[in-house]
Write a structure and sequence with these properties.
single chain; 165 residues; alpha/beta; Rossmann fold; 7-stranded mixed sheet; 7 strands; 27% helix
Length: 165
């Protein structure tokens, strides 16, 4: 678990279950206004990690990839919202306007974006970027990068809560 520099963290997950548990630990820390961007090749574990985030955050229903609908809105018992986007099928960044992306960012919700690299121009400056890479059939490398003070602090809190350091 090397720290590259403040606001960055490099982790190896050894199974899909561990990837989901890491997501769950992150989800427990998310607050309204947080933007989490997931990047990586097909099969890298983005949806598994997102599912863990939803569970940790307290979503009333299990997160599934919104590949065809582009966005799912999830709620938890206190009526907080999490918007889960999947940008894989987007042809251009302009399509993000058709789903009310700006409203999601201005609202009182968490925004979770799979395939965020496809809408890079629309991603706000303040965000947490997590790149997932395939190492072997079950092993994944997760690289966390906080952009802005809130998301840099989020990486530190995640590291403390997950690894005790």
């Amino acid at each position: 678990m090397p720290i590259i520099r403040e606001g960055e963290l490099d982790i190896i997950s050894h199974s899909p279950e561990q990837t989901a548990r890491l997501g769950k630990r992150l989800g427990m820390l998310l607050q309204p206004g947080d933007v989490v961007c997931l990047s990586g090749d097909m099969g890298a574990g983005k949806t598994v990690f997102a599912r863990g985030i939803g569970e940790g955050w307290g979503a009333q229903h299990r997160l599934t990839s919104p590949t065809y609908t582009l966005v799912h809105e999830h709620r938890r018992d206190d009526n907080q919202r999490l918007h889960h986007l999947d940008c894989y099928r987007m042809e251009s960044v302009d399509e993000i306007d058709t789903i009310g992306f700006d409203d999601m960012l201005e609202g009182n919700s968490v925004v979770l974006i799979e395939w965020a690299e496809r809408i890079l121009e629309a991603v706000p400056a303040q965000h947490l970027w997590i790149e997932l890479r395939v190492i072997e059939s079950t092993r994944r490398n997760l690289l966390f990068e906080g952009h802005g003070q809130r998301h840099t602090d989020l990486v530190s809190r995640f590291q403390e809560n997950t690894f005790g350091v």
